Inverse folding.
């Protein structure tokens, strides 16, 4: 099967263009003719297909990967052969980039490659590729695809909750600071000019507000550039492992947040490892892949040490008991190892901590939102008081 781009005219004389997958140019023209189109131009897209493996633009994003696995599981469980299922999935993709990626996977499968290698060629996640390979070997591709879609959905849901917990307070803080900047640079200077004409000594609070206004007006651009430079320097520093180690060690010492960060890391790791083990992936290979789900460097080092312990015949629970893993997770993993149901216990750990994370994030948002509003109200109130105090004093002097 090849991909052709076409330009045609319909019965009403309207120009149309698009892409079509067909065995040959003749078949493609016939298919377009059956659709009532008069073909003006038809070209084989060989060059673009050759660039699929090298171009990151052809990769499926998280939502598209989940949709791909869900549709693939549904179609294959209905009895459709793999190549036809991939063709149907490609037709259902809305974006051209995703459609081309799935078409390339189908071509790889038709040429004799297995599905896991074909997915790996378009840069699919290692967790997905290894579980698909295990599903192909055991003949349970439908069940594996369904579990993978659940894994990715849970991962996306957690990422969205984390993004909401971080982004919402930042938005409130940004607009609050914007309001304060407008007041200091535009409102305060106009009122200061009135105070200067009347003379007299101003209250201390008013003097502080005027000083802040002058600082912002005289050096605001410099402060903005300095802040942007600090952010850029920080992002560049995070490329070095030493800087990441310092950042992650500092995050794990924050009271109240260190436990939340540990639960997030363990939930991701446990769900990934549990899915891989239940899909038939070997323990050491599953540990290597699951360790990539760790974001914080201390947890990643702990995962690598745990993999070496398993290689030497040790237990995962013993290796995790010496790190930042919560005690409950260590106990559940130990029970799973003793009962021979480690994969189920890992998934239970993931479910437990994901629920805890969701509750904690909602509780944090409930507290942070009014706290930020209160801080903004206090700052605006202080500025209002600083402006009103001289006015009150002038009225008393007039009387």
């Amino acid at each position: 099967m090849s991909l052709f781009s076409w330009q045609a005219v319909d019965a009403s004389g309207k120009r149309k263009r698009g892409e079509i997958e067909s065995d040959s140019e003749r078949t493609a023209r016939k298919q377009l003719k059956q659709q009532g189109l008069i073909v003006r131009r038809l070209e084989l897209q060989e060059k673009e297909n050759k660039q699929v493996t090298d171009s990151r633009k052809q990769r499926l994003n998280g939502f598209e990967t989940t949709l791909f696995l869900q549709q693939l599981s549904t179609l294959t469980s209905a009895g459709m052969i793999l190549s036809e299922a991939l063709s149907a999935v490609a037709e259902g993709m809305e974006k051209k980039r995703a459609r081309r990626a799935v078409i390339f996977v189908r071509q790889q499968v038709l040429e004799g490659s297995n599905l896991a290698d074909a997915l790996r060629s378009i840069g699919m996640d290692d967790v997905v590729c290894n579980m698909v390979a295990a599903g192909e070997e055991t003949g349970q591709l439908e069940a594996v695809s369904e579990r993978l879609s659940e894994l990715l959905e849970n991962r996306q849901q957690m990422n969205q909750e984390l993004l909401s917990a971080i982004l919402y307070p930042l938005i409130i803080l940004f607009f609050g600071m914007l309001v304060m900047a407008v007041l200091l640079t535009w409102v305060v200077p106009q009122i200061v000019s009135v105070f200067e004409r009347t003379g007299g000594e101003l209250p201390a609070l008013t003097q502080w507000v005027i000083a802040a206004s002058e600082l912002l007006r005289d050096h605001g651009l410099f402060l903005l550039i300095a802040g942007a430079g600090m952010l850029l320097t920080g992002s560049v520093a995070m490329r070095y492992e030493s800087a990441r180690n310092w950042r992650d060690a500092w995050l794990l010492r924050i009271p109240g947040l260190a436990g939340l960060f540990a639960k997030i890391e363990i939930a991701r790791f446990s769900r990934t490892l549990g899915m891989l083990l239940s899909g038939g992936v070997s323990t050491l290979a599953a540990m290597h892949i699951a360790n990539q789900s760790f974001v914080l460097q201390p947890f990643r080092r702990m995962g690598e040490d745990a993999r070496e312990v398993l290689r030497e015949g040790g237990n995962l629970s013993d290796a995790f008991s010496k790190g930042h893993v919560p005690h409950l997770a260590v106990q559940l993993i130990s029970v799973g190892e003793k009962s021979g149901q480690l994969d189920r216990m890992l998934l239970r750990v993931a479910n437990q901590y994901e629920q805890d994370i969701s509750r904690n994030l909602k509780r944090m948002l409930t507290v942070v939102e009014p706290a930020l509003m209160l801080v903004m109200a206090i700052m605006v109130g202080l500025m209002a008081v600083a402006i009103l105090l001289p006015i009150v004093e002038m009225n008393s002097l007039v009387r």
Remarks:
- The longest strand covers residues 2-9.
- Residues 47-57 have pLDDT under 50 and may be disordered.
- The radius of gyration is 30 Å.
- The chain is about 75% helix and 5% strand.
